[in-house]
Amino acid sequence: MGVLETIYIVCLACGVLYALAVLLFGHADWMSHHHAHLPVLQPILLVSGATAFGAAGYLLGRFTSLSDLVVVGLAVLIGIGLAVASYFLWVQPMSRAENSTGYTMSQLVGKLGEVCTTIPANGLGEVLVKMVSGTTFHMAASLDGEQIRQGSRVVVVEVRDHVLHVTGFPHDDAKKEEE
C-alpha cells in the first residue's frame, strides 16, 4: 500500500468515524469556530470534504489507470465540490432553521407587559407578556413597592427567582393624567 493510498484511507476512515460519533453522541462542537464566522470552518464541511477526498482518491487510484498527480487533483476537486454542496444543502438551510421560538427568563427584561391580576404593593400579581413564541403569563411583583392595577402597562426591569419585577410604563401615567 502506497503513501497516497494510506492518506486516502485515513481521510475516509476519519470521516466515517466522525459521522458515527455525531450520530451516536449528537452534534460535535469541538471543531466549530463561532468567532471566525467563516463558512469554510464548519465541521460538516471540513469532514465531508476530507471524506470525499479520501473516498475519491482511493477509488480513482485503485480502479483507474490515471497518474497519481491526476488522481490527487481530481480527489481534491471532488472533496471541495462535496464541501460546497454540503454548505448549500445542509449548513446554510440549517443555520436559518436553528432560530428558536423559545426564550429564557432573562430575555424578558425590557419587555412591555399588561397586568392581568392586580399587583399589590408587597405581593404578587400576574403579567401578560407578548413574545415571538406567543403570549405568556408570569408572576410579577412591583419593583417600586407600589400597587399596580389590572390593565396597566408595565416594563419588566428584572427577573429574580422566576418572578418578574416590573414598574409602571411611563406613557401610561401621561395617558391617565389626560383623562
Automatic annotation (TrEMBL):
Record-linked Pfam families: NfeD_TM
Protein's UniProt name: Serine protease
Domain Membrane protein NfeD2 N-terminal transmembrane, residue spans: 4-99
Entry keyword set: Hydrolase, Membrane, Protease, Transmembrane, Transmembrane helix
Keyword Transit peptide: no
Gene Ontology MF terms: peptidase activity
Domain of life: Bacteria
GO term, biological process aspect, one: proteolysis
Keyword Transmembrane: yes
Transmembrane segments: 6-26, 38-60, 66-90
